[in-house]
Amino acid sequence: MLETNRYKQNSNIMIGTLPNEASVIHLLMGIDFAGTKESLLQTARNYFENEFNKKYSSVAEDAIKFYFTGVDGVDASVAALSLFGDLGFHCPSNIFAHNLAKSNKVFRYVFAYDAPMIFNFSCEHLSPCHGSDIFFFFGNFLSNSSDIEVSDDWIRLISEFVKGNTEIWPPYYVTKSDFVVPFYKDYRGPNYTKSIKVGHRNIQCEFWKSAVVNIA
């Protein structure tokens, strides 16, 4: 799609992720992110060898250096979650947002509200996790007044977007020199005042972009 430029033009597009997207990989593939550092390193190596092929082994070693250098214990679990989350969700989302922004208004967000643990299965080290935002999108199964307030605010923002309101937060901005400024909303609730940021996981995604180009 990106190679042929066959995608929407002159539209408003919203793209979002959550901090711990790798939790869904745990559910679908049975990967244990709570193991020792050595077991997590082997998990990364096995993933690249089994899901792709052995020519990606050098990428696995580079990724291990990038994510695991200087970390241990719980931090190693967070590193593994980050590796798989970036590879499978954050960086592909950024790539789509970057390309679509050249002919559309792209509104990027990260739903980072610290949802209660009841929603965050396998997310004790990095939250919220994949799917935790669903309850807030629809306002279901929420009893805590703070959570209900967040849900009401989030539904309001999404509803405004659907109605065509492009002032909800700054979209990606393309300069006259064709440089894309990747604004995004770091959503942590209605009272979080520093929510507009630039470049979600940009350094990590530059790593993956370089790694993929070098083996293509």
Report on this structure:
The strands form two sheets. Strands 1-2-5-6 form a four-stranded mixed sheet, with helices on one face. By secondary structure, the chain is α/β, with parallel strands linked by helices. The mean pLDDT is 89. The two termini are 18 Å apart. The protein is globular and about 50 Å long. Helix 2 (37-51) packs antiparallel against helix 3 and helix 4 (74-100) crosses helix 7 (202-215). It contains seven helices and six strands. The chain has helices spanning 23-29, 37-51, 57-68, 74-100, 134-138, 145-162, 202-215; strands spanning 12-17, 105-111, 173-174, 180-181, 183-187, 196-198. It is 45% helix and 12% strand. It has a single domain, classed as 3-Layer(aba) Sandwich (Rossmann fold), CATH 3.40.50.1820. Residues 9-176 form the Carboxylesterase type B domain. InterPro entries: AB_hydrolase_fold (IPR029058), AChE-related_enzymes (IPR050654), CarbesteraseB (IPR002018).
Report a brief summary of the structure:
This protein is α/β, with parallel strands linked by helices and 216 residues long.
List key phrases describing it.
216 residues; 4-stranded mixed beta sheet; alpha/beta; Carboxylesterase type B domain-containing protein
